[in-house]
Design brief:
The structure holds 2 protein chains of 2 kinds. Chain A is of the alpha+beta class. Helix content of chain A is 28%, strand content 36%. Helices cover 79% and strands 1% of the residues of chain B. The chains are: A alpha+beta, B mainly alpha.
Chain lengths: 155, 365
């Protein structure tokens, strides 16, 4: 039988193309990412540091930074440190170097509530960030709350 | 509880703390009547600055700045020197509407990428971008805080302000493009970067544009405080992230800068008023003082001492180019890219020297 699929089926047929497009969109912007100001989270046992990543002035996600080893840590695993003083300029200089090593993974997930693709970004063995892309794979979706937070700390 | 000491935050908090501590001391020495303190705050200028701070964040958070930059880049598929021309012009246009720090946030990463694909020196490209952002903000009376203070304090009309500011703007633009041509021109390259689009919030974008137009009209008629309250209320309802995105400690710093430097002007006015009738003294005094305390406090101080607003428009804006401390946009740009002071001074030297001389001639005419 050679029936054409119903409307929503044709949308499903387009999914691999949209997914591929979303990966390609993130691959194009990965080299244009710059770090925002450090965000500190205070815990009873110490402090963890996140680095917002910015594209076109908008924040896309935050990456956990390990102050002990001067490297990124995996998403979901912030490193709580007891280091008492940090020089933001030195950390950002290291982060700029590490951002050049980011790579886009070749598979995506879809989130229905936000109606967008989530493209994983890796640094060495770790997935360190998730970048959201619109359903059609064409537009990167910024994190508006994080953009507001970065904007209020940029000076 | 362990907490990390962040030196950058410490230095900013230090400036705020000093300005808070200095306020009662300066008020005491200025012998100002307590009922006159609201006048020292210069509510009209202060609220207009806060209004445009909100608008610039509206541009950023709604994605309007980003969309504007994309639109300009799409129009500017360029080759050779035209690449740098489009980069600088789009930074200027963005800066006119979304303030210089907003333009720096969006365009400096583009400059970094341009230097990567073209092989141009990244420090040159970034410093040229910072100069372009400061240049764009000169034209309109709401382009940067020093313009707002002069516009509001002297009750100037939009057109009379722009008669002076456009002269500085055009001159600085020409010098910038000449310096850019000498620095990077002559190399024939093609831009092949494909910039992915960023999803924008149309409702927040249209709200920002509507408020911008309303605010310009209200501020021009001396109703800056109403423009600020209106924007605050509407943004809070339409998109609270825009309100959250304002650095309110910076707003607090502005409050104390007005108190401190207006009090200081009262203390010193008797000694300085005579001296500051000379245009060249105002010009050079503003340039030098701005490199120590930045151009916004210098402008607050000098508006109370001199009537020569045209000299002040020229000098306060040119002061923003000379060192990173001269302008907030410079500091943001250096922080984003990690470029140090020495590199900035070295790469901006030719431009700064030329514009300082031309600025002096303009003030003398």
């Amino acid at each position: 039988m050679n029936e054409s699929p119903p409307g929503n089926m044709s949308e499903e047929n387009r999914l691999p193309r949209y997914a591929r497009k979303s990966i390609s969109t993130v691959s194009k912007l990965i080299g244009l990412i710059v770090p925002g100001p450090l965000i500190f989270h205070h815990h009873p046992s110490g402090t963890s540091v996140d680095i917002p990543i910015l594209y076109n002035g908008m924040a896309l996600d935050r990456i956990h930074f390990d102050l002990y080893f001067n490297r990124f840590s995996p998403k979901g695993l912030p490193v709580i440190s007891r280091i008492s003083e940090v020089d933001e300029a030195n950390v950002l200089s290291k982060v700029r170097e590490l951002l050049g090593e980011l790579r886009v993974l070749d598979a995506v997930e879809f989130r229905v509530p936000e109606d967008c693709w989530v493209v994983p970004v890796a640094w060495r063995e770790f997935i360190v960030a998730h970048i959201k892309v619109s359903r059609d794979g064409m537009e990167v979706v910024p994190d508006q709350g994080l953009t507001a937070e970065v904007s209020s700390r940029i000076v | 509880m362990y907490s990390i000491i962040n030196r950058s935050v410490l230095s900013r908090n230090f400036i705020l703390s000093i300005s808070i501590i200095a306020a009662p001391i300066l008020l005491l020495f200025s012998r100002v009547d307590p009922s006159d303190i609201p006048r020292l705050l210069d509510i009209k200028s202060l609220s207009t600055i806060l209004f445009f701070l909100l608008i610039s964040r509206g541009f950023l958070v709604s994605g309007l700045s980003s969309r504007l930059a994309q639109w300009i880049r799409a129009k500017g598929k360029a080759r050779g020197f035209n690449i740098i021309l489009f980069y600088l012009l789009s930074t200027m246009i963005l800066s006119m509407l979304a303030t210089n720090d907003g333009a720096v946030l969006v365009m400096i990463p583009v400059g970094l990428k341009l230097s990567e694909i073209t092989g141009w020196n990244p420090i040159s490209i970034i410093v040229l971008g910072l100069i372009a952002a400061n240049t764009g903000s000169i034209l309109f009376p709401f382009g940067n805080p020093q313009n707002i203070i002069i516009w509001q304090y002297y009750n100037l009309s939009f057109t009379s302000f722009m008669r002076t500011s456009s002269l500085v703007f055009v001159t600085a633009s020409v010098v910038l493009l000449l310096v850019a041509y000498i620095e990077v021109g002559g190399k024939y390259l093609e831009e092949k970067v494909d910039y992915p689009r960023v999803q924008t919030s149309s409702a927040a974008g249209y709200t920002t544009l509507a408020l911008l137009l309303t605010g310009i009209i209200l501020s021009d008629r001396g109703y800056g405080p109403y423009a600020f309250l209106l924007a605050l209320a509407i943004f809070f309802i339409a998109d609270k992230y825009i309100v959250y995105s304002v650095d309110w400690s910076l707003a607090l710093l502005f409050v104390f800068l007005f108190l401190d430097f207006n009090s200081l002007a009262l203390i010193l006015s008797r000694h300085l008023t005579q001296l500051l009738t000379d245009t060249s003294v105002i010009y050079l005094g503003t340039l030098i003082t701005s490199q120590v305390i930045s151009n916004v406090p210098t402008t607050i101080f000098l508006t109370k001492i001199t009537h020569q607003w045209t000299s002040l428009v020229v000098s306060a804006n040119i002061a923003g180019y000379l060192t990173p401390i001269g302008s907030l946009a410079n500091l943001i740009g250096l922080r984003l890219t990690g470029i140090n002071w020495k590199d900035y001074l070295e790469k901006s030297l030719v431009f700064s020297f030329t514009i300082t001389i031309i600025g002096y001639i303009i003030t003398m005419i």
